[in-house]
Amino acid sequence: MSAVIVPPTASLSDALDRLGLPGSLRGIGALAPGQRAHGPVFTARYEPVDEHGGTVGDFLDDIVAGSVVLIDNDGRTDCTVWGGIMTRLASTRQIAATVIHGVCRDTAVAAELAYPVWSAGRFMRTGKDRVRLAATQTPLRIDGVTIHPGDVLVGDDDGVVVVPASRWSEVRELAERIEHVEDRIVADVANGGTLREARARHGYHSLQTKEC
């Protein structure tokens, strides 16, 4: 999917709103400006350790190139689940990006390799002996959005959205139409029209309205 050009997350979010679909993951932002990625989701879920301990997980061995790793650490910001080793291997194996409902560390490595990461922040404390890998390739629920393995995730400077795989073509086409309408509004205003007139002419205020 890496060669395919997709609409920005803002337009995809508008399309999801119009279709009544959740998909925008609040509080997860780009680690570096200008990064953009998309691909099918590979899910991983962490949980707190108990007296039996656990492992941080070696799931990178199971991920197909071009996938986006989506890690749910329950939004925790007190310990990380992604660092330099994972970044180096993911980059080498041509994984498209990593998205974390939680924090990451070794951010200089991601910057050096231009490997795209989205997270809830950055913090250096290890997750070893604090969290363990609970499951991979199972559904996740983050910020009210249910995400299944294989769903399409898109990330850019505005954050990340996830689109159900079965609705991807529909959402993408609608987002492209929204982009086209916005371009026409800008062109009309540049040619001397008013913003109010241009928005009314092209139905701007109903673009994100949920369809009945």
Gist of the model:
With 212 residues, this protein is an alpha/beta fold. The chain has helices spanning 9-19, 84-92, 107-113, 168-190, 195-201, and strands at 29-30, 37-48, 68-72, 97-101, 103-104, 117-119, 121-122, 131-136, 140-142, 145-147, 152-156, 159-163. Helices cover 27% and strands 25% of the residues.
By CATH, the superfamily of the largest domain comes out as Ribonuclease E inhibitor RraA/RraA-like
Question: And the CATH topology of the largest domain?
Answer: Glucose Oxidase, domain 1
CATH level-two architecture of the largest domain: 3-Layer(bba) Sandwich
**Outline:** elongated
N/C terminus separation: 32 Å
Average pLDDT taken over every residue: 90
User: Rg, please?
Assistant: 19 Å
Helix segment count?
5
Estimate nothing, just give the exact number of structural domains: 2
Low-confidence stretches: none
Please give the CATH class of the largest domain.
Alpha Beta
The run of helices and strands is HEEEHEEHEEEEEEEHH
Main β sheet profile:
8 strands, mixed
Number-wise, the strands total 12
Tell me what portion of residues adopts beta-strand conformation.
25-35%
Helix/strand/pairing class, anyone?
alpha/beta
